[in-house]
């Protein structure tokens, strides 16, 4: 402390007074440790006031070191009646201007001036700064977290000189540990909120971009498909030209499907997709889907097991889309001559509403257990980009979003070289007579 000693002058404490002080500081430490984020500022203000009143000083404050320890900012302050607040003036001050006190604090030592008039010559900047506001005594205790000095807790006396005892300063040090932890916690939460807000803004911009691009792509793409369909009706074309037109038409439809999927994602993320909940006979939907998908997978044996009277509450168009995606995947990633079985049944769990389970089971290549969590991630094809099977990795993302929006749940179980089972659970519908 550069020759400065702590003194018990002016306290004249007996054992009871020291015990009361110890109890108070313990209670303050507990209060800081248990303070919630919402109550943090109020708690700090209360702690400062309690210490200041007990020790007979006029001002107590918390100063944080920011910008890599280059600037100081006062974040909390308590002032006795008649003492002017200084918090508005201690914002963004350069630490380099207070070389003496900064050196002490960075060495984890306290800054203690019982009488500002007798400050050492090297503390001229501190004497001038505090003297400008009539301060007579100063105590500043470093806040240290993980070995890093994050700021100081300070106490100024304006109306009289105050001598702090070594015991009192040690107790303030203990309280400062709680304050330092709170400062670090507050900084961490602020950084998390900032990162969250930036991510939200970026996601919103991405979603808006996808929505606009999807709309812009659909117009020329529909024109391409329309003219291609028209050209395909010309019977006078050669077989080579006709094959080329068929491929253009097929590729255009695949691209249109991708555009629609991207558009669906943007609509769901921006909460602009309308889902119409209605009573649907599941058998009708399943048989329609199997007839469509079965025509594109003639080598796969597709079967179904479903009671004709089972109904669900869902959006008919979106349920059709979900079933097409799931059954198509079961066919695409199957083995030659494999099977796909669609089963539907009612299920009731005690204390819950009845649901309908739609299971699509295949005998395909399966999915490794380590990859199951990635199935619903957009544009993730689980390493099958070079498999020769067409796809973008977006279909199951849209499927899960649609099932969620319809109040349902989707799950996947799979075993490599054995097959995959996808279960879609939706609210059972109520048949009206």
Provide the low-confidence segments as ranges: 1-12
Assigned CATH class of the largest domain:
Alpha Beta
Question: How many domains make up the 3D coordinates?
Answer: 3
| Number of helical segments with 4 or more residues | 9
Number of strands: 13
Account of the 3D structure:
With 433 residues, the chain is α+β, with helices and mostly antiparallel strands. It contains nine helices and 13 strands. It has helices spanning 15-34, 40-55, 99-106, 124-131, 166-232, 239-269, 282-296, 316-332, 395-405, and strands spanning 59-66, 71-79, 91-94, 111-113, 137-145, 148-157, 278-281, 301-306, 311-314, 339-347, 355-362, 409-415, 419-427. The longest helix has 67 residues, at 166-232. The chain is elongated, with a radius of gyration of 36 Å. Mean pLDDT is 82; it is low at 1-12.
């Amino acid at each position: 402390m550069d020759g400065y000693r702590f003194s018990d002058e002016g306290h004249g404490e007996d054992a009871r007074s020291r015990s009361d002080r110890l109890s108070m500081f313990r209670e303050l430490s507990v209060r800081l440790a248990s303070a919630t984020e919402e109550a943090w500022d109020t708690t700090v203000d209360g702690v400062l006031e309690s210490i200041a009143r007990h020790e007979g000083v006029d001002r107590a404050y918390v100063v944080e070191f920011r910008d890599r320890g280059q600037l100081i900012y006062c974040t909390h302050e308590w002032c006795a009646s008649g003492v002017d607040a200084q918090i508005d003036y201690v914002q963004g001050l350069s630490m380099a201007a207070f070389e003496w006190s900064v050196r002490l604090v960075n060495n984890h030592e306290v800054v203690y001036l019982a009488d500002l008039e007798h400050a050492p010559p090297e503390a001229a900047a501190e004497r001038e700064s505090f003297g400008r506001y009539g301060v007579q005594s100063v105590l500043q205790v470093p806040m240290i977290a993980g070995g890093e000095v994050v700021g100081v807790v300070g106490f100024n006396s304006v109306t009289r000189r105050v001598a702090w005892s070594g015991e009192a300063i040690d107790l303030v040090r203990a309280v400062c540990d709680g304050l330092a932890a709170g400062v670090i916690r507050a900084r961490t939460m602020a950084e998390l909120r900032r990162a969250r807000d930036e991510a939200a803004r970026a996601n919103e911009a991405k979603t808006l971009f996808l929505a606009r691009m999807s709309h812009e792509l659909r117009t020329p793409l529909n024109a391409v498909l329309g003219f291609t369909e028209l050209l395909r009706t010309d019977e006078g074309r050669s077989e080579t030209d006709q094959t080329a037109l068929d491929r253009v038409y097929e590729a255009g439809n695949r691209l249109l499907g991708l555009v629609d999927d991207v558009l669906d994602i943007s609509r769901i993320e921006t909460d602009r997709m309308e889902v119409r909940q209605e009573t649907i006979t599941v058998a009708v939907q399943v048989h329609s889907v199997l007839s469509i998908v079965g025509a594109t997978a003639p080598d796969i044996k597709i079967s179904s097991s479903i009671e004709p009277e089972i109904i669900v509450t869902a959006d008919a168009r979106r349920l059709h889309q979900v079933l097409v995606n799931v059954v198509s995947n079961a066919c695409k990633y199957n083995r030659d001559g494999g099977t796909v079985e669609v089963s539907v049944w009612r299920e009731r769990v005690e204390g819950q509403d009845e649901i309908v389970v739609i299971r699509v089971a295949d005998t395909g290549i399966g999915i490794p257990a380590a990859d199951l969590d990635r199935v619903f991630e957009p544009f993730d094809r689980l390493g099958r980009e070079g498999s020769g099977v067409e796809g973008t990795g977006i279909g199951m993302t849209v499927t899960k979003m649609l099932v969620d929006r319809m109040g349902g749940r989707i799950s996947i179980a799979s075993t490599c070289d054995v097959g995959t089972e996808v279960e879609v659970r939706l609210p059972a519908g109520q048949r009206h007579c």
